[in-house]
Amino acid sequence: MGRTVSNLRPLAAATVLALSLSGPLHAQADSSRLTLDRIFASGEFTPELLGDARWIEGEPAYTRLEPDSATPGARALVRYDAASGRRDVWIPASRLVPAAQLAEVKAGLADGNTDIVIGTHALLGKDIKFKNLGLVIVDEEQHFGVSHKEKLKSLRAEVHVLTLSATPIPRTLQLALTGVRDLSIIASPPVDRLAVRTFVTPFDPVTIREALLREKYRGGQSFYVCPRIEDLAGAKDFLDKTVPEVRVTVAHGQMPPTVLDDIMSAFYDGKYDVLLSTTIIESGLDIPTANTLIVHRADRFGLSQLYQLRGRVGRSKLRAYALFTLPAEKPITPQAERRLKVLQSLDTLGAGFQVASHDLDIRGAGNLLGEEQSGHIKEVGFELYQQMLEEAVVSLKAGITAPVADRWSPQITIGTPVLIPDDYVADLSVRLALYRRLADLEDEREMESFAAELVDRFGPLPKEVEHLLQVVAIKALCRRANVEKIDAGPKGAVLSFRDNNFANPVGLLQFIQAQGPSARIRNDKSGQKLVLLGDWETPVQRLKGTTALLRQLAGIAEKKAA
Questions:
Q1: Which pLDDT band holds residue 367 (cuts at 50, 70, 90)?
Q2: Which helix (H) or strand (E) holds 514?
């Protein structure tokens, strides 16, 4: 998900930044034997009797974890080339790395001695400097927020960015679908991989006991995930009383790094049957023997979170099971119910893109530009903004930088709903087509013809549609009168002119004088505004009054122009 890097030869002398999910498990993997076990468990490499080392398939080289001579207690991933005798060292950067070793990494990045750095969110800190950053690879992109994305943009303008995720966040997916980012989908599952059987059920101690014992007696392990750290103690007591036959260990992100490292290593070695944890196992954890997942209070998790959690099991050739429990006596929110229904229906392999698409539909695309909501989206609506964005992307790719036409849009506030209701036009694609046609209407004759077509196709116009047509007509009048913004309320209207300019100032002054005390010019920080007092209690009165006012101003402006 991101820009396609077609040629990496120019990046040979540049620094490559690889970001992984910030979380204890990902970070500790860089400093434990567990990393190598995960890397070589896939079968791409064959183990040799070299302790923790592994031969690299097809190459006279092997890798191993060994103590870092510069930092006591730290370990680094080292690659040995048996033919040339070359020794390459990969040093991680995360919160679990000792301060002395982290300082060494920072110094190497600043002076250009480090070619590749692998780390977590720590690499986006203010004290991290890069001499020549060429490529950024972001793994588990869904865990990087807006501030992290903006930081990545500010690193270097011409940097190549490659983001990877099974469930991209709605904002990233939306950028890819509109053409702002390039998109590549890999939906082919590994050979012999079986889909995870998914069950959504109320919390039942008997069901949980049966699931955990079933996994234990077939020689496997289980995950029990809670949404909050404070839930772990109660869950531990529950498991000890309900399933005393299984060995349970607890892990969460607030544990000391060394303790967490020992717990995960012990679980990986099979010393425990159940890992009771928070969402720190959500991404990147690969334990082939763990094939049962139980999620406590699944209604408190997001859709992508649940999909990522389900992906922690079933990573071998055995059938895996995922049990999402809900409170037995409390109702869940409609949004949570919708998320769980989607997840239960998409239980096939490689369904990450479909899950992300449903997540986009449920949550919306959100903020596409910067940390603040785009004003254009608020002004014209999401569908029309989508069309405008696609047109802008196509123009930029074609080398067209100048706008095709001056189609500025006035801001109109009347205080009444203006839309085409679902019960009037049920088909979404038809509604979008009608909105696009409305955006191109200019004069009243076209709008009358459009309204007659709607009556003929769909029946009498609802009030919302009538008001929508009137607002579109007012927008056309605003462009003629150079009115940029109009706010109409029960006591009248306030108008702002675009660039504080009116085509016929003399005519405007005569109009204000003719209105008497009900019209005046007000100065504020944003410029001069025309205030017109009136008794417009209802939305219908405001629409009629605003239309009559704009007709007069448009006539005055065009009289001068003629």
A1: low
A2: helix 505-515
Strands 290-295 and 221-225: what pairing?
A: parallel
Pull the structure tokens for residue 232: 């772990």
Structure tokens at 433: 């087509």
User: Is the pLDDT reported for residue 383 higher than 90?
Assistant: no
Q: What b-and-e string marks burial along 494-504, b requiring 16 or more CB atoms within 10 Å of the CB?
A: bbbbbeeebbb
Tokens of 264: 């995960």
Residue 118: pLDDT band (50, 70, 90) is: confident
CB atoms within 10 A of CB 69: 9
How confident is the model over 126-163, as pLDDT tens digits?
Answer: 788 888 888 888 888 877 776 777 777 676 667 888 88
- List the domains of the chain with CATH numbers: 9-165 (3.40.50), 197-349 (3.40.50.300), 401-561 (3.90.1150.50)
Residues 6 or more apart whose CB falls under 8 angstroms from that of 306 comprise 295, 298, 324, 339, 340, 343
d(CA 93, CA 105): 7
Helix (H) or strand (E) holding 249: strand 248-251
Question: How far apart are alpha carbons 124 and 132 in whole angstroms?
Answer: 15
Give just the sign of the alpha carbon dihedral 233, 234, 237, 242: negative
Q: Which residue has the tokens 């809670």?
A: 226
pTM over 0.70: no
CA distances from 411 to 93, 98, 485 (A): 49, 55, 5
One-letter amino acid at 447 equals: M
